[in-house]
Amino acid sequence: MKKNLIAVIILALLVVNTVMTGVMMFTVIPANQKTMTLVGNIASAIQLDLGIAGSGSVESATNNVAIADIAPYDIADQLTIKLKTDPEEEGGAKDHYAVVGVTLSLNTKDDDYAAYSANLATQEGLIKDKINSVIGSYTYAEANSANASDIQAKILEELQTMYNSKFICGVSFSSWLLQ
To answer: How many domains does the chain have?
Structure first.
């Protein structure tokens, strides 16, 4: 009789343990996932604040190219670019301009570097045209609220498409003024 009573107690404890494990699975794990999501959001917000002059991190600004392999190329003049007019702007549509100094980061280890870098000065007009078209597609409000790294990424994408090469590995703004 004692053996049956002990077997019943062990069986009851086993059932209680299984039920408690199930309860923990359905209560603790979702709460833990929500906590992990919150920590991930906070970490991404901190990373944005720690960015390099609005360019994100060093890796994203230069596409993981070592600093020793980067040759900067400064666009000769500051560009004055007319921004797209916004008809919904308060006080009527005004003309706004962006005054931008642009520096390109060139990957000296890229296969196309030797072919293209020698002609950059003569092709500067084409480069300025791409920069004008990207920045000029923003209204004053959009450019003012946009992250500089997003605009730089769009310019970089346009230049890489134009050259059909990734020897330009980064775009940075030496100056950025909206008027």
So the answer is: 2
Domain at 79, CATH number:
3.30.479.30
The 3 state secondary structure assigned to 161-175 is HHHCCCCEEEEEEEE
In angstroms, the CA 11 to CA 17 distance is: 10
Give the C-alpha separation, 155 to 171, whole Å.
7
68 by DSSP, 3-state: which?
A: helix
Distance CA 36, CA 101 (A): 41
What is the spatial distance between Cα 20 and Cα 14, in angstroms, rounded to a whole number? Answer: 10
Phi, psi at 167, each rounded to 5°: -70, -20
* pTM: predicted TM-score of the whole model, two decimal places: 0.61
Q: What does the pLDDT look like over 8-65, one tens digit per residue?
A: 999 999 999 999 998 888 888 877 878 887 877 776 666 544 333 344 444 444 567 7
Q: Which two tokens stand for residue 172?
A: 């940075």
117 with 74, same domain? yes
- CA dist 124 and 116 (Å) reads 12
DSSP structure string for 96-158: -EEEEEEEEEEETTSTTHHHHHTTTTTTHHHHHHHHHHHHHTSBHHHHHHS-HHHHHHHHHHH
Token code pair at residue 137: 């597609």
Residue 94, domain extent:
59-178
Q: Which two tokens stand for residue 71?
A: 């040759």
